[in-house]
Design brief:
5 strands; 12 helices
């Protein structure tokens, strides 16, 4: 038995007697607690910015980002990693998620798995390469599986938790102080909301810095179904201001490559010229446009 000492384990004085509230008042109380989370996350943006810059450098050099977590924390890492490739057209190896208890733990709790320090260390040794970014996600900041992974030498280590006093030895601590949960110790609530906000911001900012976004448009989206093919056409029309027939023709000429069609229309060049400019400019639209500007 371990008694965890962390802010997330405290009793919240604002939510006493939840069970006596009306349903509407209960929901309002939970919502008020949720509203405190973005402010807590705002307090760690300086630390998170450094992680983004390191991830950009790592991915540019052929490395990877790894998420390690257990329970809700680990599932949120899996969710973020799964959504990056189709949204931004990157290889699935760029963001890799590791969940205590393995894939089955995604669907049902494997509670004892989080206590296995050596399992986390072994998983990291088997998958993390020198120079990779290793991000541990743990509400309390002391989950053994996560700490085991973070013990891996030769990589850049980050801990995302809701315990500013966490003592893990990492390169960067990202620890918003979300305080005690509405239901004592239920870190699937505010702590998890903070983790979701941080992971969303981290991976999105990393993709923006790598040129996977033009303005605020996801120009590398994988058009793997009818909805996404329609979105690709809409994105091209939005970015260029051309009518649908013109955008559709540009996409056809570019073999469905949105960035090529986008540069073709914005720079007024041929498809071949647009493709060559993107190749020279690390596949970044802004850089390609600069190359093609007289």
């Amino acid at each position: 038995m371990i008694r965890v000492t962390a802010p997330t384990e405290g009793r919240n004085p604002r939510t006493l007697d939840l069970d006596l509230l009306s349903t509407r008042d209960l929901l309002a109380t939970l919502n008020a607690e949720d509203a405190t989370v973005p402010g807590a996350v705002a307090g760690v943006l300086d630390a998170l910015a450094g992680v983004v810059d390191r991830a950009v450098a790592t991915l540019s050099a052929g490395g990877a980002v790894h998420y390690f977590g257990a329970g809700t924390s680990g599932r949120l890492g899996c969710l973020d990693a799964a959504e990056i490739p189709p949204t931004y057209g990157v290889p699935p190896t760029w963001f890799q998620a590791h969940l205590a208890g393995g894939p089955d733990a995604m669907w049902r709790a494997v509670e004892n798995a989080e206590d296995d320090y050596e399992a986390g260390a072994a998983e990291a040794r088997a998958s993390v390469r020198p120079g990779d970014v290793l991000i541990g996600i743990a509400a309390s900041g002391r989950t053994p599986y996560v700490l085991g992974a973070l013990s891996t030498p030769g990589c850049f280590t980050v801990l995302i938790c809701s315990n500013p006093a966490a003592t893990a030895r990492v390169d960067v601590l990202v620890a918003p102080d979300t305080g005690p949960e509405p239901v004592t110790g239920s870190t699937r609530m505010k702590a998890a909301t903070a983790q979701k906000l941080i992971l969303n911001a981290f991976s999105t900012a990393t993709m923006v810095r790598l040129g996977r976004v033009y303005s605020n448009l996801m120009v590398d989206v994988s058009a793997t179904n009818a909805k996404l093919r329609g979105r690709r056409l809409s994105l091209l029309m939005e970015a260029t201001g051309v009518a649908e027939p013109v955008a559709a023709a540009a996409l056809a000429d570019a073999d469905g490559e949105l960035k090529v069609a986008l540069v073709t229309l914005l720079a007024g060049v041929t498809t071949a010229q647009a493709r060559a400019a993107l190749l020279t400019s690390e596949d970044q639209v802004r850089k390609a446009l600069v190359l093609l500007t007289p």
